[in-house]
Specification:
This protein is mainly α. The chain contains five helices and no strands. The chain starts with 11 loop residues before the first helix and ends with a helix. This is Sodium:proton antiporter.
């Protein structure tokens, strides 16, 4: 929640509702892509060529699949929380908890995206080149999703 950003005509309840709706809109965007990535990853294990892959590829795949599953769980958890807690006047807690779940889900999404890219690039590039490229992809995500918002927040 941005400090200093308040609407004069907005009650605290209306502000909570607005924050809740903003979080839900953000989650709708990221949930679909994360679920598609997870489904794609599930299919890889059933490809004939995958069985011939080495231990490194299998380990990267396992970690990537688990990270994607954890991301899906974290990004869908607010739905379950809302269903269980609906009508209990806990919107203030739901907004705070959902924000933290979304942040954790995004972190696991970065891990799973990088793992998926590494699995694909390991096929078309040398392993060192694939790892270096994924390092660049990771840096890109960290820059856009963490460093840039942190810079903007502190610049304010």
């Amino acid at each position: 929640m941005a400090e200093g950003y308040e609407r004069d005509d907005e009650s605290s309840g209306e502000r909570l509702d607005r924050h809740w709706n903003e979080l839900l809109q953000e989650l709708r965007l990221v949930q679909t892509g994360t679920q598609i990535l997870f489904a794609f990853l599930l299919g890889i294990a059933f490809q004939n060529q995958f069985h011939a892959a080495d231990g490194f590829t299998h380990t990267v795949y396992a970690c990537t699949l688990i990270a994607a599953a954890l991301a899906v769980g974290l990004l869908l958890a607010p739905v379950a929380l809302h269903r269980v807690l609906f009508g209990h006047q806990l919107r203030d807690r739901l907004v705070t908890i959902t924000d933290r779940l979304a942040q954790a889900g995004m972190a696991f999404l970065i891990v799973s995206m990088c793992g998926g890219v590494l699995i694909a690039l390991d096929v078309v590039l040398s392993r060192p080149a694939a790892i270096a490229t994924v390092g660049g992809v990771l840096l890109w995500f960290v820059t856009l999703w963490l460093a840039l918002p942190t810079y903007i927040r502190h610049k304010r």
